[in-house]
Amino acid sequence: MTASTEQFWFTRRAGQVRGPYQGGEISRYILLGRLREADEISPDRHHWRQLGDHPELIPEVIREADSEAGRRRLAAARAEADERDTAGRNPRRLDPPCIERRNGQRRAVMSLMHPQAGAVRRPLATAALMFGLTGLALLLV
User: Fold this and answer.
1) Strand-pair category, 40-42 with 49-50
2) 3-state secondary structure (DSSP) of residue 62
3) Tens-digit pLDDT profile for the chain (141 aa)?
4) What secondary structure letter does DSSP report for 124?
5) How many CB atoms lie within 10 A of CB 65?
6) Separation between Cα atoms, residue 57 and residue 27, nearest integer Å
7) Residues 110, 101 contacting (CB under 8 angstroms)
8) Are 72 and 66 in contact (CB under 8 A)?
């Protein structure tokens, strides 16, 4: 690690200052597309420079993304660095948990959730939402 990746940085875009972030976090944000080379960074909030002026903060996988193999490595690095829940991107994770039960000589896969469990939860969630919205409306009036 270089001194730039170990120190803390502030970021600025359209006049809005955020931070401080460690240099490694800055590199991760670049990798995920949350920061761009045109964004400004500063170690002290007084002397601002464009992010592109600090090539040591730009991940190597981005600099090597000019080939097909490089683009695949970049996509894999982005997926690994992304901390968000991937349940929406992987529909298999949304399935309810299942168990296998023996019934004689055959096996049947059964859901751990009751078939009507989803139908019961929806009205409760809707009622809670309506109650919350009614309370919010009363506060605003």
Assistant:
1) antiparallel
2) helix
3) 455 667 899 999 999 999 999 988 999 999 998 998 889 999 999 999 999 899 899 888 988 888 888 889 888 888 888 877 655 555 455 555 555 555 555 555 555 565 565 555 555 556 666 666 666 666 666
4) H
5) 17
6) 5
7) yes
8) no
Give ∠ CA 48-66-10 in degrees, rounded to 5: 20
Q: Which amino acid does the sequence have at 34? A: R
Distance CA(135)–CA(123), nearest Å, equals: 18
User: What pTM did the predictor assign?
Assistant: 0.55
Assigned CATH class of 3-81: alpha beta
For the chain, domain boundaries: 3-81
